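Protocol check, entry for the methods section draft. Step 1: assemble the input record (protein sequence plus ligand SMILES). Step 2: submit for complex structure prediction. Step 3: store the structure tokens unaltered in the notebook. Ligand used here: NAP. Step 1 record:
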Amino acid sequence: MKICVLGATGRTGKLVVGQAHERGIDVTALVRDPARLGPTRELVNDVTPIDADDAVLTAALAGSVALVSALGPLRETPRGELAGLLTRILESADRAGVSRVVSISAAPISPPPAGESAAYRRVVLPAIRRVFRLQYQELALMDAALMARPGLDWTILRPPRLTNSAAAQSYRAEIGGPAVGGRTVTRAGLAKAVLDSLARPDWSRQIVGLAAG
Ligand SMILES: NC(=O)c1ccc[n+]([C@@H]2O[C@H](COP(=O)([O-])OP(=O)(O)OC[C@H]3O[C@@H](n4cnc5c(N)ncnc54)[C@H](OP(=O)(O)O)[C@@H]3O)[C@@H](O)[C@H]2O)c1
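Step 3, stored output:
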């Protein structure tokens, strides 16, 4: 089994690659700078430039059971840059016959779940949305690019704040939106959820909220 990973040089992306390797899943990484893979390079079967031409991207994607996006915008990322990049890769995925996509977004983009505390809804969430407004705008554009494609079998994972405990892979998942009381999840748990998504037909064409389990 093979997956194609965007954002494999990032903190979560490297964990996705590592856990995929442990599960015996081959990985093709589409990256802008292979050096940023570091030791993760050893765990990747193929590295292709993310800005390669369409024929090269299509060949890199061919045979993958899924495309995974762990791309993350920075505050200074020009609006639409990552959404445009994702759309271009989706077109190559389409040509390669890859219709399953798992993409990481962010919990605060979703409306707060019923049952969430008033303090969180009125004070904490608006403050988080203000601070990360530009990143969430880009992630929302990426999510919209996925949801707009007819026939695409997407799962959008929306985690809250990411933490770095390497050991803790447990998470809880809420189909449709953020988990009540979910304030953090580990990047290792998020990476596990990405790979678990491959065997979750009930997460198909769903936004799935995540939280520490
Ligand atoms: N940080 C949080 O608390 C938090 C909370 C909720 C959701 N999220 C989301 O969770 C996901 C994983 O987060 P993370 O902190 O693990 O990610 P990260 O370490 O910031 O990695 C981001 C990845 O995106 C790639 N990337 C960014 N801009 C790119 C561009 N223009 N072209 C090609 N690649 C580009 C980076 O490549 P380079 O290595 O080449 O830069 C890197 O591989 C992201 O979608 C993030 O938005 C984060």
